[in-house]
Amino acid sequence: MISLESFSIYIILCVLAPLIGAFTLLFLFIFEKRIDLIEKEKKEIAIERELQMALYNQLNQEIQPHFLFNTLNSILSLARLDRKKELVYSIETFSKLLKFKYQTNTNNITVNDELTYIKYYLEIQKTRFRDRLFYEIEADEDVHQALIIPFLIQTLVENAFKHSFEKHIGEAFLKVTVKKCSQSIQVTVWNSANNQAIDDYNEVGIGLENIKARLHLFYSKETTSINLLISETGTTVVAVFPYITKE
Fold first, then answer.
1. Cβ neighbours of residue 230 under 8 Å, at least 6 residues apart?
2. Can you give the pLDDT at residue 146?
3. How large a percentage of the chain has pLDDT more than 90?
4. So where are the chain's domains?
5. Which of 48, 69, 148, 163 is most buried, taking the most CB atoms under 10 A from its CB?
6. pTM higher than 0.90 for the full model?
7. Residue 199, pLDDT above cutoff 70
8. Distance of CA 137 to the CA centre of its chain
9. Which residues form a coiled coil (predicted)?
10. Which pLDDT tens digit goes with each residue over 119-138?
11. For position 22, what pLDDT does the model report?
12. Residue 99 neighbours by CB distance under 10 Å
């Protein structure tokens, strides 16, 4: 015969069992929904990242044809002037430049690689402009292995030729400086064109907007900036982005 105490416990269990089962099912349902939400968020982040990289690569591709076209124009001008020795040297340098470019296919390169790339470009321009062109490149030792988006400095250097040196007679001065400031890299490209020498603000702006967009995509939420400063002593472009190394 069942005691009153055992019967009471049995009744309590009969009442609580469905409630416990219901709470368990509810917990599992909420947990499953949370897992689904996390998976959905992960997929959305992955898709967003893929779209950002696609846009980043597209912006990179917008820079390359423009640079190659201008370099070929520089070499063509040597051929028209029948400067055979300089022409041969420029073609050799251009081949090194192309080899260097297509050896890697990454979304970022080191500052050292970018500067090597620029030196090839400036060698070609030095052959073209001869004694008219003077340039200087300075870089802190600790920035050589820092990462940078491809063609950042190249675009700024090329703008100096396209919007200044190629349009105006006289000596052309160019200075590239790369230094570390706290946890950031500061790239400064100065050329001797003053505010009266530049009349192509729209095209300059397009190039800077391209760099600004690529910096934003590559460094995401990190602080980046690109600024154009024009004065009587020349034109300066300053780009700032986070200091990140391969390691």
1. 194, 195, 198, 236
2. 93
3. 20
4. 59-242
5. 148
6. no
7. no
8. 20
9. none
10. 988 988 888 788 899 999 99
11. 65
12. 10
Are the CB atoms for 136 and 109 separated by under 8 Å? no
Please, which residues bridge with residue 207 across strands? none
Q: Domain 59-242 carries which CATH code?
A: 3.30.565.10
Cα dihedral: 167, 94, 110, 202 (round 10): 20
Q: Quick: pLDDT tens for 98-122.
A: 777 666 567 788 999 999 989 988 9
Residue carrying structure tokens 């400036």? 122
In this predicted model, which residue has the larger pLDDT, 200 or 140?
Answer: 140
Query: Cα separation of 124 and 72, whole Å?
Result: 10
In this predicted structure, what is the pLDDT of residue 162?
81
